[in-house]
Amino acid sequence: MKRRLISLTFAAVLALSCQSMDEAYAAPDTQELSELYGDFLAGSYAQKIQDRASQQKYFTNAFLSQPDDIRIGRRAIVSALETGDMDGAIKLSERVLKSDKTEPLARAVLGIDAFRRGRENRALKYFSGRSSDVTMTILMQLVRGWTEVEEKDYKAARATFASLEAGSYFETYIELQLAKIDGLQGETDAALERLDAVDEEGVSGVEALLTRVRILSAADRADEAIVALEEILADNEGLSIGPVGYYLKRLKAGQSLPKIDAKGEASRALTEPALSFFAANRSLDGAEIFLRFARWIDPENTKSALWLGSILEDRDEAGQQEAYEFYQQIGKDNPYYVSGRLNIANIYFNREEDDKAIEVLEALNEREQSVLTRESLGRARFFRENYEEALPFYKELVDSMSDEEITANVEPLRFRGIIYERLNRWPEAEADFKRVLKFVPDDVDTLNYLGYTWVDRGENLTEAFDMIREAVKQQPQSGAIVDSLGWAHYKLGEYEKARENLEKAVALSPSSATIIDHLGDVYWKLGRKREAGFQWKRALEFEPTDKERETIAIKLKGGLEAVPVTTEALP
User: What is the model's pTM?
Assistant: First the structure.
């Protein structure tokens, strides 16, 4: 199951330069005022509970009651975009611009609508001019550049991209756009040089790779393109089921690669920052707006549908259903078909329709037979704690992998070790963990898991501490890893050091039942028994495992000493 993402409010995420909500409205009469505030408050409440349809309805009504209030108009436009009502967004934007011709969100909506309809000159008029709204400035500059490419005005497009100033990420990202223009103009070496710089910064890795391959192929250098793809696949086997594998298959068969026009490139220009910049900075609403626009410009851009679906399915039932419909539309010949089917299985699991999910995964594995599809079948059982059923999948998968393949992807071996540990087959689990570290000595998850388990078993304590400290050094903001260090101190009777680390771990992962439970244990050892009971009760609120719930119940009734030695402080 996917981890539910944190939803951010529209005002905080899009950083729209609207006026303070505390400012007074123009004075309508009493009835108008009542209707206005009634709709506005209803829209605000709908926004809080993530009822997108009601949110759009009430904000739209509020704006129609007070069409000069641009603040409400902006909220109404965003609500329309978030329900996929692009016609509604257009009408609202037209009304907003009657009152404020510079309003950036409305300009973006109408400019993109003009661009997608082939009215480039009209689009450029909407995109012209600066705005204090950084998010909309980025969006309009990216689309404006590709609008100018559509007009064959490459000089203007280069200037547009080069003028975008929005931090180091976009400084590198613009080089990717310029490399694409170089490729269109036949300047292959210049394009490859720019792409080398993009690769060094690690921005948009797959999109940069596919851009390189398309440019090389267009320059009759398909052999070099094949080498570039094979080098990536050697270290990332999972990419073989997506566009990377699709491109490689076509090139080896002597086939041409799909053509991407200016509209397609504009759509992709909005897609990449959605997750790698906005969502990475916890701006999910900003990511959604970019992806909505990307899909509007080019409905064939499957990646934007997948990424938008990944945001929506972690929201409510309506969002999950919309995501499901996106995924269902991905055909079998689409390079993103496997990703779409895996996401459909995930939705079935979230709906507790496990049989349907397993059916999807089994059909997919029969069709694809890749490491990813086979592991998905095992992981589906693993996360439902069906360890006996999960083990054969991981055993077969690991046994089929070469040392080179394991080095490139240690997850199957690590998961097999975890399954052995959960089945109380410790010697086999320990052997798998050690083997992972033989291939990848700094694998942080294995360092943490093996170190934690050794501490919990009272074995190899010096080495275990070294492993956990190395894991903390690599990921100091991981609550689970800091918890391991705290628990190591606890097992050694160093309760003050344990408390310091466990309190930090709880702050980093405030909804982890395991970590909260551990903090309760250390409070008990320090004589802070009332606080211990409070933490144990709190742990029950965050979906502990059945074993944890059983142990906590014992502690709440008789204290820590009442827990049998075999079940105390279960990991």
Answer: 0.71
